Amino acid sequence: MKTQVAIVGGGPSGLLLAQLLYKRNIDAVVLERQTRDYVLQRIRAGILERGLVDLMHEAGVAGRLQQEGLAHDGTVISYGAEHFRIPFTKYIAKPVVVYGQTEVTRDLYDAREACGGVTEFRVEDVVINDVTTARPYVTYRVEGQARRIDADYIVGCDGFHGVSRQTIPSEARKEFEKVYPFGWLGILSETPPVNDELIYANSDQGFALCSMRNENLSRYYVQCSQSDSTDNWSDAKFWDALRQRLPESLAENLVTGPSIEKSIAPLRSFVVEPMRWGNLFLCGDAAHIVPPTGAKGLNTAASDVHYLYNGLRQFYEDDDTTGIDGYSEKALARVWKAERFSWWMTSVLHRFPGQTDFDARMQRAELAFIRENEAAQASMAINYVGLPY
Ligand code: APR
Ligand code: PHB
């Protein structure tokens, strides 16, 4: 098979890129290791920056997002018994939109099917070849049969555990990593959200987050130990832990019910440089991971897609390689800022093993300062809502 752009990985990065390219008549094939249903089972964050919403419009897949997405123009932060609100739209004329990543991915799969785009599922043994030549290709197997795709460019959208990053020789890539000494235990429950905006909570018992998917579907998290297991967390224990971590005036609105999903996620910051090697480009989790505090994972993947899509368009439409030549540098400049913001939010909101009382007071003083200082609030709002592309 021959195509212009071979995309390894059918998560949100790969699918969004494929759909944007389709709109410009640029041919792409998507190779996905799992099935569509498997990909759509994964529950991830649900906060979309304006830039991603705009890309969904440009890709022609924003219909349901427009109908069902909830615009949020602020968020609540609590520390101990105190809480305050950051009014995003006082500082930047853009809200964020609450819409699950699972729904973004579903909309993209539906659009890809509707336009007849080629997606190969259950691919195995993907190998990316000859990316430093003008004739790169991908080999793989489907149901035991060997296949090959020749392409102008190969894009690695295969997530943190994919193969594309490893295709860059180890002496040519530098990896930066920080693993946090805790995890997030998350549940979904068919209950009305405790608040109409998100609550990020710093408490003596650890971090908590109150989020939502819609008016009758809540998503809640509590900080847990890295080695914890969901078996240790009955629903009752979860609700108790969450309640204890919220100021009383907010906790009193908490409606509890059975969880319909429960899982633990580790927290990690990771970046690989460069994000281009010859004719291979990395996008999204294949190149970087952020801890979920601040919801930058999907949004940072989207900014990569934006830079790469525009670079590929420039190449195919104007025979100009400026955009793709500048891709790695441009994408990384924004990635690092999202990394900094996610690391900072993580640092200021969690309880760290070995943290002293002094450290806890520093967190509290920082949050109190944000509460009282408009410049600090503006800085947080601008980063949370999303830096410009
Ligand atoms: N061959 C083909 N597909 C692969 C391979 C491989 N060798 N390895 C992994 N994949 C697939 C995975 O099955 C997955 O569907 O690549 C996809 C990668 O998707 P994600 O991990 O979701 O990464 P990405 O599309 O970059 O999405 C960005 O935003 O909120 C964050 O981490 C969150 O998933 C999220 C991300
Ligand atoms: C979520 O809704 O799952 C969510 C929201 C905000 C975050 C992380 C996760 O920072």
Reconstruct the topology from this structure:
Blueprint: E1 5-8, H1 12-23, E2 28-31, H2 36-41, E3 47-48, H3 50-58, H4 63-68, E4 70-72, E5 75-79, E6 82-86, H5 88-91, E7 96-98, H6 101-114, E8 118-120, E9 123-129, E10 137-142, E11 145-150, E12 153-156, H7 164-167, E13 174-189, E14 199-202, E15 208-214, E16 217-224, H8 235-245, H9 248-251, E17 259-273, E18 276-277, E19 280-282, E20 288-289, H10 297-318, H11 322-325, H12 327-349, H13 357-372, H14 374-385
Parallel strand pairs: 1-2, 1-12, 2-8, 5-14, 12-19
Antiparallel strand pairs: 3-7, 4-7, 5-6, 9-10, 10-11, 13-16, 13-17, 14-15, 15-16, 17-20, 18-19
P-hydroxybenzoic acid (PHB) binds at residues 45-47, 198, 209, 211, 219, 292-295.
Q: Based on DSSP secondary structure assignment, what is the total number of beta strands?
A: 20
CATH topology of the largest domain: FAD/NAD(P)-binding domain
N- to C-terminal distance: 34 Å
Each distinct ligand:
adenosine-5-diphosphoribose, P-hydroxybenzoic acid
> DSSP strand (E) fraction?
25-35%
Q: Write down the overall mean pLDDT.
A: 97
CATH class of the largest domain: Alpha Beta
Shape: globular
The gyration radius over C-alpha positions equals: 21 Å
- CATH architecture term of the largest domain: 3-Layer(bba) Sandwich
Helix share bin: 25-40%
CATH evolutionary superfamily of the largest domain:
FAD/NAD(P)-binding domain
* Total domain units: 2
Count of helical regions: 14
- Class inferred from helices and paired strands: alpha+beta
Instruction: Please mark out the parts with pLDDT under 50 across 5 or more consecutive residues, or reply none.
Output: none
Strand line-up in the sheet with most strands:
6-5-14-15-16-13-17-20
Largest sheet: 8 strands, mixed
